[in-house]
């Protein structure tokens, strides 16, 4: 059979069949046949996420890109990208933020880079970071003069 490269790639990453079928809009039979054709080890049984932690699930679908950006190959796109773990769906940006900053995000997250769909933890600011930035902008303006 002809093996689709996108299916093969997700299979090699250990993505469950049902997730591949959903992501790529293909039949589960097609995924199963591809799995067989590639002679990969048996799929993960029992459904659910094959990843031990939410962070593992993030890393499995986060692909580093140029300039520190990260593209997302898991569920959802852009601000609706989610990490599926233990039957829960968690916003990818929150997981990425926690991984990068070592704490949970406070309030809304805003992307600080210009790459659409980027999910790099370093490229998001939460309320605490925005407030700190606003403070240093005011201090800068007070010292050097700024827009009034
Ligand atoms: Zn970015």
List keywords for this structure.
single chain, 148 residues, alpha+beta, two-stranded antiparallel ribbon, 6 strands, 42% helix, elongated, binds zinc ion
Descriptive account of the structure:
The protein has 148 residues and is of the alpha+beta class. The chain folds into 2 domains: 5-37; 54-132, no CATH class. The protein is 42% helix and 12% strand. It contains 6 helices and 6 strands; from the N terminus they run ααααββββαββα. A hairpin with a 2-residue loop joins strand 3 (82-85) and strand 4. The longest helix has 18 residues, at 127-144. It binds zinc ion.
What can be said about the biggest beta sheet?
Answer: 2 strands, antiparallel
- The gyration radius over C-alpha positions equals 20 Å
Tally of separate helices: 6
Cα distance, first to last residue?
68 Å
Q: DSSP strand (E) fraction?
A: 5-15%
Total tally of structural domains:
2
Alpha-beta classification = alpha+beta
Low-confidence stretches: none
Write down how many β-strands occur, each being a DSSP E stretch of 2 or more residues.
6
Helical content, roughly?
Answer: 40-55%
Mean pLDDT: 88
Q: Ligands in the structure?
A: zinc ion
């Amino acid at each position: 059979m002809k093996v689709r490269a996108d299916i093969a790639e997700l299979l090699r990453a250990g993505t469950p069949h049902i997730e591949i079928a959903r992501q790529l809009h293909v039949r589960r039979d097609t995924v199963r046949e591809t799995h067989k054709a590639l002679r990969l080890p048996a799929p993960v049984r029992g459904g659910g996420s094959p990843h031990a932690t939410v962070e593992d699930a993030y890393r499995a679908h986060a692909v580093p890109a140029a300039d520190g950006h990260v593209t997302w190959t898991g569920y959802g796109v852009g601000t609706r990208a989610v990490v599926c773990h233990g039957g829960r769906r968690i916003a990818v940006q929150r997981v990425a933020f926690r991984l990068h900053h070592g704490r949970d995000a406070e309030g809304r997250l805003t992307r600080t880079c210009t790459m659409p769909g980027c999910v790099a933890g370093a490229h998001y600011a939460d309320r605490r970071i925005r407030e700190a930035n606003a403070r240093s902008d005011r201090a800068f303006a007070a010292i050097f003069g700024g827009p009034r």
